[in-house]
């Protein structure tokens, strides 16, 4: 498969009412004023053959949130390909049932030239906030390419 490879963990919890998932709002100036489609499952790129998708998913969860994946069964939710051309991504996700204090998250950072063509590097959080959201709300906030994982989680839980 051509394109980039990413892997992630979709953390979920079942409370007194609906199932909730933990997703993060993407950091950086491009996403600052966006909400719908500006949230993501904690995930990141990996190099097939160098590390497995499952190992990469746990590593990226830790890098993006500053906290390890809670203990629990990792339920494979499969792969989704989204985007096109050189920017296409092959995303593999596992669901893990567990809880995590969203206020304890210490996001990883990235550097980019900002403002554009200024020659200055600025540091931004990979994820600027995380929230526990019910599946319907999460569906509205996640990027379209990641929404199938919410349906797959709902099917698994049913």
Description:
The chain is of the alpha+beta class and 158 residues long. It is 19% helix and 39% strand. Strand 7 and strand 8 form a beta hairpin. It is globular and about 50 Å long. It starts with a strand and ends with a helix.
Quick recap:
This protein is of the alpha+beta class and 158 residues long.
Task: Indicate the percent of residues in helices.
Answer: 10-25%
| SSE succession | EEEEHEEEEEHH
Radius of gyration: 15 Å
Q: How many strand units? A: 9
Low-confidence stretches: none
The CA-CA distance between the termini, in Å, is 32 Å
Biggest sheet features = 7 strands, mixed
Summed up, the helix count is 3
Q: Approximately how much beta-strand content do the residues carry? A: 35-45%
Query: Structural class of the helix and strand makeup?
Result: alpha+beta
Mean pLDDT: 93
The coarse overall form would be globular
List keywords for this structure.
single chain, 158 residues, alpha+beta, seven-stranded mixed β-sheet, two-stranded antiparallel sheet, 3 helices
């Amino acid at each position: 498969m051509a394109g980039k490879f990413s892997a992630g963990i979709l953390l979920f919890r079942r409370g007194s009412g609906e199932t909730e998932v933990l997703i993060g709002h993407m950091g950086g100036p491009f996403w600052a004023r966006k909400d719908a489609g500006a949230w993501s499952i904690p995930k990141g790129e990996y190099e097939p053959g160098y590390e497995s998708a499952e190992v990469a998913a746990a590593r990226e969860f830790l890098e993006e949130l500053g906290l390890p994946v809670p203990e629990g069964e990792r339920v494979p939710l499969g792969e989704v390909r989204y985007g096109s051309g050189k920017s296409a991504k092959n995303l593999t996700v596992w669901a893990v049932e567990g809880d995590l204090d969203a206020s304890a998250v210490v996001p990883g950072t990235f550097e980019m030239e900002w403002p554009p063509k200024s020659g200055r590097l600025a540091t931004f959080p990979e994820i600027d906030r995380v929230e526990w959201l019910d599946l319907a709300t999460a569906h509205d906030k996640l990027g379209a390419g990641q929404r199938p994982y919410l349906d797959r989680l709902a099917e698994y839980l049913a």
